[in-house]
Fold:
Amino acid sequence: MSNNKNIDQLLENLDSLLEIKVETSSINIEEVARLYHEKKLSEQKGNSRQIIGLILLCISLFFSSSAMINRINSITIGVLAILTFWLNYKAKKEIAEQDLSVSFNDFTLQRKKIAISLLKQFKGMRIIFSIAFSIVFYAYLYDYINEPHVLKLFIYPIVFISGSALAFHSIESGIKEYRELAKAQD
Structure:
């Protein structure tokens, strides 16, 4: 009798998207570890594609715009995307180097190492996003001082602050999630 069981129910705090088939009440830890490993690698691969898309968008904006502020923003966000891609690649490499576990203790250790590598990735992203958003903010401030305009006074700050808040909230939630996951494996 085959039952579909969610890995979160079996191990408490694994991702809810990963499902395994269990024919008996025993758990095949090697299969669970393999699926978890593959899932985390595919997440990093998807992140890489999004970041490459952002880099290409920045390149196209740089060449399609003549305004200095747009070029500064394109370069800043392009560098941000490149650094984020490098952090993503580094985390992907660390995840790929993890051995597939054959016991529950090995699987717990593997999950902790993966969580720590992803935690380092998000902490690095927090630093580079802070620097990039500071550069963009000061570029907009400089642009507003040079050419004051009502739209620059209201629209730019509202869009910038809301976008920054969304990005930082996403990064902080990732840090919190992987910090808790790493601590839960102790």
Remarks:
- Confidence is low (pLDDT under 50) at residues 1-10, 12-25.
- Residues 18 and 36 are 7 Å apart (CA to CA).
